């Protein structure tokens, strides 16, 4: 038995409400269950109950045992002084307010339907890949897609919060935040840490001074990455000479990374850090204001074209200094562009929408997701086999969140599908 099950029972009033009595033999009538509280304090607020002949308005607190009140130290918290009903599964001790008045306590164990308890236990102990797998196909498509949308919103809010946390640490500089997130995502997992360090040591405010010169941006990026030290060709020597001048000008000499921080092994030349750095240089030379570009670009095609900027002529034919490629590098591939939009543009737009309290930016982020085909991975394949079709990234991102944060954590009572099955 978990406390969230008791929350479910109380929220949906899934117990026998005829002839209710508290543990102190007071007659109890529930007029309003209240609203579940996601913040600190009592579990349900704005409830209304009648105790004997007196009607009370206030909060409801829920515990497995009444003694959990003491265990959680609510007796020392003034926020719990407005609790009008203590709802428990097992009554093992009387609980009082600070002035000594007993808090009316309602025990659910004897008035909850045994079949509901059994169904809940089956969900919690199911050995299938997801708890409700035996019943999933019986739930209406509307409820499934509604829950997938709820999961997507949760996922986007979490990513937006991560952006907001970075923003706070950077003095609310949206350009620097966008730049840091963009570079981190250019690592495509293998080199995320190295790209993030590069973004930290080489601020965007320096790079945007040279946004009309791809060559100078390349010099700064490759130089700060520690890749202009040895085994260079003629073009590399030119970059190294330019970087020496720029590094001294901006006081960057002490922050240069070691070349060993970059991972080249087990990756194709098209994904080498050198190639990615040349692509970043091409992007940054297009715009002096990264953040404004994301916020002001209204259509998906324009945003895609920005990310597909062609690298300089040298890097179209090389994957490292002095090492030519058998084929031309035309820019970032479609899958990589989509990855950058999902993990950079979308979270930044969501965070900004919340920052300025404007849903239009969040809606734009969601529209971008609807433009991208669904990713194909183990989780989306599982959902498709269960009849939950994922056509766009809007669907697949929601389905991944549903699987990871609800199904795998057995948060069935916070899921519309789980609630539908219990009902």
Short description:
The protein has 423 residues and is of the alpha+beta class. The chain has helices spanning 3-11, 68-71, 114-125, 141-169, 174-186, 192-201, 204-207, 214-224, 234-250, 273-284, 290-296, 300-307, 334-355, 359-371, 378-385, 393-407, 416-422, and strands spanning 20-21, 27-32, 35-36, 44-51, 54-65, 83-90, 105-107, 318-320, 323-324.
Question: What do these coordinates show?
Answer:
- It contains 17 helices and 9 strands.
- A hairpin with a 2-residue loop joins strand 4 and strand 5.
- The protein has helices spanning 3-11, 68-71, 114-125, 141-169, 174-186, 192-201, 204-207, 214-224, 234-250, 273-284, 290-296, 300-307, 334-355, 359-371, 378-385, 393-407, 416-422, and strands at 20-21, 27-32, 35-36, 44-51, 54-65, 83-90, 105-107, 318-320, 323-324.
- The protein has 423 residues and is α+β, with helices and mostly antiparallel strands.
- Helix 8 (214-224) packs across helix 10.
- The protein starts with a helix and ends with a helix.
């Amino acid at each position: 038995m978990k406390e969230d099950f008791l929350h479910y029972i109380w929220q949906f009033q899934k117990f026998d409400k005829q002839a209710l009595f508290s543990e102190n033999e007071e007659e109890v009538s529930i007029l309003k269950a209240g609203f579940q509280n996601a913040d600190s304090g009592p579990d349900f607020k704005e409830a209304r109950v009648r105790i004997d002949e007196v009607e009370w308005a206030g909060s409801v607190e829920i515990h497995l045992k009444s003694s959990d009140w003491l265990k959680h130290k609510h007796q020392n918290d003034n926020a719990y002084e407005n609790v009008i009903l203590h709802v428990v599964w097992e009554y093992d001790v009387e609980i009082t307010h600070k002035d000594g008045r007993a808090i009316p306590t309602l025990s659910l164990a004897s008035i909850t339907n045994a079949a509901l308890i059994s169904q809940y236990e089956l969900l919690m102990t199911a050995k299938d890949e997801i708890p409700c797998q035996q019943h999933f196909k019986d739930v209406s498509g509307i409820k499934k897609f509604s829950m997938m949308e709820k999961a997507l919103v949760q996922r986007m809010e979490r990513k937006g919060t991560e952006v907001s946390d970075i923003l706070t640490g950077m003095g609310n500089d949206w350009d620097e935040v966008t730049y840091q997130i963009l570079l981190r995502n250019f690592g495509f997992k293998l080199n995320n840490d190295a790209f993030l360090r590069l973004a930290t040591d080489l601020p965007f405010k320096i790079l945007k001074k040279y946004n009309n010169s791809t060559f100078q941006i390349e010099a700064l990026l490759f130089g700060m990455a520690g890749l202009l030290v040895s085994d260079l060709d003629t073009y590399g020597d030119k970059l190294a000479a330019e970087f020496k001048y720029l590094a001294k000008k901006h006081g960057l000499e002490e922050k240069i990374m070691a070349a060993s921080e970059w991972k080249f092994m087990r990756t194709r030349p098209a994904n080498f850090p050198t190639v990615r750095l040349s692509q970043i240089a091409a992007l940054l030379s297009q715009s002096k204001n990264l953040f404004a570009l994301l916020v002001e670009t209204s259509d998906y095609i324009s945003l895609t074209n920005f990310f597909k900027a062609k690298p300089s002529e040298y890097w179209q034919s090389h994957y490292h200094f002095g090492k030519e490629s058998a084929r031309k590098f035309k820019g970032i591939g479609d899958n990589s562009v989509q990855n950058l939009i999902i993990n950079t543009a979308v979270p930044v737009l969501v965070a900004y929408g919340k920052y300025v309290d404007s849903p239009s930016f969040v809606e734009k982020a969601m529209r971008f997701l609807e433009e991208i085909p669904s990713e194909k991975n183990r989780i989306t394949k599982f959902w498709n086999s269960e009849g939950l079709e994922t056509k766009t990234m809007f669907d697949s991102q929601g389905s991944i969140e549903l699987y990871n944060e609800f199904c795998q954590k057995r948060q069935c009572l916070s899921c519309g599908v789980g609630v539908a099955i219990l009902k």
